Each structure stands twice: as structure tokens, then as C-alpha cells.
Amino acid sequence: MELTGEAQNVDSYSNVLSGVVKLSKSLSDGRQQIVGLQFAPNFLGRPFKVESSINAEAATAVTLCSFPRAAVERMMKASREFEHRLLKQTLNELDEAREWMVTLGRKTAPEKVASFLLMMARNIDSSLDAASRSASFDLPLTRAEISDFLGITNETVSRQLTRLRADGVIRIENARHVTVDSISRLEKRCGGGRERP
Amino acid sequence: MELTGEAQNVDSYSNVLSGVVKLSKSLSDGRQQIVGLQFAPNFLGRPFKVESSINAEAATAVTLCSFPRAAVERMMKASREFEHRLLKQTLNELDEAREWMVTLGRKTAPEKVASFLLMMARNIDSSLDAASRSASFDLPLTRAEISDFLGITNETVSRQLTRLRADGVIRIENARHVTVDSISRLEKRCGGGRERP
DNA sequence: CGAGTCGTTGACACTCTTCAAGCGCGGTGG
DNA sequence: CCACCGCGCTTGAAGAGTGTCAACGACTCG
After folding, report:
1. CA dihedral A174, A177, A180, A181 (to 10 degrees)
2. What does the domain layout of chain B look like in residue ranges?
3. How far apart are the C-alpha atoms of A35 and A38, rounded to whole Å?
4. Chain B contacts in chain A segment 119-178 (CB below 8 A)
5. What architecture (CATH level 2) is domain A107-188?
6. Is B90 on the interface with A (CB under 8 A)?
7. pLDDT tens per residue, range A170-188
8. Which of B91, B100, B197 sits opposite A28 (nearest CB)?
9. What residues does A33 pair with on adjacent strands?
10. Could you list the pLDDT tens digit for every one of the 197 residues in chain B?
11. Of A86, A174, B70, B167, which is the most buried if we count CB atoms within 10 A?
12. A2-104 CATH fold
């Protein structure tokens, strides 16, 4: 099943086979916050609850493998292994969410943008040999979406990106394709990362 | 087992029987973000992983019921019901984390403080009959901790609290005990809450 | 060709932070 | 017993960092 990018509510369960799905929440006055991105090959959906006021939509062209609600809930009862894997994924998503809370609450705009690029490099770089020094990828989000992810405005995102480009940390083509020559230089701009030095 | 408020790393698993435990992450330059609060009767700990760089410490006097790591992992293998409940709690924490991401990323300082008070009222009010109009409780956190939870400075927290008091939304005694006479008035200050109107 | 979206850039306003001082309270020691 | 100090909290004044508003170019789609 192939989506081309249109918004949709997910009331069935799916596996993301390719592409990026964005999860967002919004306030009644229009403010919006992206609360997570699902890359392949992750599970999509929220068991045990009517959809928790989260909107899911495709950020890029997305390939899904989806099942009706009932079938998945049957599988979960039948297979321990399935429930176990779901628990592990949920714990990972919780870790990521909390990590991102630090970025949202305590990092400056330049650090937020750098952190976002670093996360992108680690998740969707097409040619990244683990621990490589450089990365190159297409941004799956528009500036406005990035701003909703980082809790800043699209103008600020744009300004910080051009600043990173001016400083030689990244190169940008077509406004969407980003190349990072030195990952470690990018990491230095993310604001300290360790816990308790 | 009774803690009196000192910091400690949790490498065993525990149930929170009473009190409030605060979970935080911090950057190497000292900036800190509280990423969650655990109230009774929740589970505390992170299975399947070396502690994920999260610090847990008691915010108030806390009563725990804790088990060694190995015992809990045995229980999880033995009892489906146990793993199932852990999954449900983790999903709930994920929902809360994402809800808070909206507050961190998209709400103003006045809205953040109001949202925090509302959350406190719902979680630790000693005399709250569901859907009651008023609430009264002791804050489990200092101003500095609240600011680390909301991603603002303690000065801003203080200013917004006195503003809420000046506007008659809350009353404050001893700088710690808060009374909310009209919950709905407080809710109006949290910034719209619905998903897609 | 006109309309719409996305991205960039500039000028200005404003929220929030930073820095500083002061108050109240509890613990400690002279 | 009381002065002293430390800590949490409040308040003020000034400044920095982002947001807001606006204009413009590049590109896509009808």
C-alpha cells in the first residue's frame, strides 16, 4: 500500500516499510508540535486506547504494511514475542521522547537545529557507514514542519540553517538536500550531551 | 523503605508507594530538564537496558518497594500479566511525555505555569473529588525544579505565579501550598487543548 | 500567465533571560 | 539566646534571543 503524502488518521496498525511518518499534536488555536517521527521499520499505532489525540501523517512517500485493529489485538494475545517486541519499541520511543524534551526545553535555537540535523543524519542517511565522518541526505520535512518539531518558527529555522552553511558546517542543495562533511563539528553545535560529567 | 530526599541512581526496580520521584536529564554544561514525575503507584526503572542516562531522585519524602534487577526480570519472563501491565504503563508514560512536549515546545511561559499547576492539581490534590471545582495541594518541587520541568527560569516561574495570584486564580501560602478555587479558570490559562477543532 | 507554496532575508517588537539586590526562614555556632 | 550564614523565593532593570510582520525570489501546478 503506497501513500503519496496526504494526511490521514491511523486507526489501524501498521508497519512502516519505507519513508517517514510524522506524529503531531496541536492546540485549538493552531499551534502545532511534532512529537515524534517514525522511520522504517517501526510499528505505528496505539494499542489499548482510542487514538490518543495524536495525528499521524506521511512526511514523505511512505510504504506501509497495515492490519485491521482486531487482527493485531488477536496477534498480541496469541504471541508473547509480539507483545515483547512492542514493549521494547515503546520503551525506545519513550527514551527518544525524553531526549527530545531536553532539546525542546533547554537548548537554544542554534542547538535545536543542529540536533535535528544530527538526528536526521543518524536516521536517514543513505550512505552512512556507522561512525562515518560525513553524511548526506534529503530532509523529509519542510521548514515549517522542522519548526513545529523544534518549537521555534520557520524563519528561525531558516536563519540557523543559513548560519550553519555560512560557517561551513553543512552544504545545502535545492533547500532540501543536506551534506554534513564533519559529523563531529555538527555534534559540537548540539550543546553538551553527557549526563553527569 | 523510606528515603528522605537525597539523590540516588535507581539501578533496581521499584514501585512508588507514596511521594513523588522526579526523572531528569542534564547537559554537560549544567542545564537540566525534568522529563517526568512518578507518582504512586507507578513502576520505576528501565528494563532491557543499562540505565538510559536518566537521573531519578526523590522530590518529596518517598516510600518505595524495590526489588533487585534479576528478580524483576525473572518475574517478567514468568508472568505475562506483569509484562502486559508494564507495557500499558509505558504507553501511558509515552502519552504523557508527548503531551508535555507540546507544553515545552509551543506554550508561552504563563501557559506553562498554568499547565503545571493543573497537572499538580490532578495528580496530588489531597481532597479532590473527580471533576471538583477546586483543588488544594503542596507543591512537591522548588521553583528551580519547576523551571527545569517547564524549560524556563525560576525567576519567570516566580513571576507567573505571583501574576496568577494577583489575578485571583490561585492562592499561595508559605510559597509551597497552592489553592485553586476554580479549576476551569485555571484551564483557560493553559492554552487550547483539543486536537483538531 | 497567474496563483500558490516554500524558502530566505530584513526591520522591529516583545517575551524571556540575565544579573543584581533584598527578604524571610531554619540551622549552626559563638 | 541571638548573630550569622545559606537557601529558597521574590522583585527590579537591562539586554539578548526569538517571534512577528512584511517583502521578495524560485518553483510548481493549473
Report:
1. -70
2. 2-104, 107-188
3. 10
4. 148, 150-151
5. Orthogonal Bundle (1.10)
6. yes
7. 999 999 999 999 999 999 9
8. B197
9. A25
10. 455 544 455 567 889 999 999 999 999 999 999 999 999 889 988 877 656 688 889 999 888 888 888 888 888 899 999 999 999 999 999 999 999 999 999 999 999 999 999 999 999 876 666 667 899 999 999 999 999 999 999 999 999 999 999 999 999 999 999 999 999 999 999 997 765 43
11. A86
12. Jelly Rolls (2.60.120)
C-alpha cell at B59: 522530590
Chain B residues 30-89 with a CB less than 8 Å from chain A:
31-33, 35-36, 46-49, 52-55, 80, 83-84, 86-88
User: Residue A103 burial by CB count (10 A; 0-12/13-18/19+): exposed, middle or buried?
Assistant: buried
Whether pTM exceeds 0.90: yes
* Gap from B22 CA to D11 C1', Å: 29
Contact B87, A20 (CB under 8 A): no
Topology alike, domains A2-104 and A107-188: no
Q: How far is A180 from chain B (nearest CA, A)?
A: 23
Residue B29 CB neighbour total at 10 angstroms: 10
Cβ neighbours for A77, distance < 8 A, ≥ 6 positions apart? none
State chain B's mean pLDDT as an integer: 89
Look up the protein residue whose alpha carbon has the minimum distance to the C1' of C17.
B153
Q: Which nucleotide is nearest to B155 (CA to C1')?
A: D10
Question: What digits encode the pLDDT tens for the residues A9-50?
Answer: 556 788 999 999 999 999 999 999 999 999 989 998 887 765
- Tell me which of A23-37, A74-88, A95-109 is least confident: A74-88
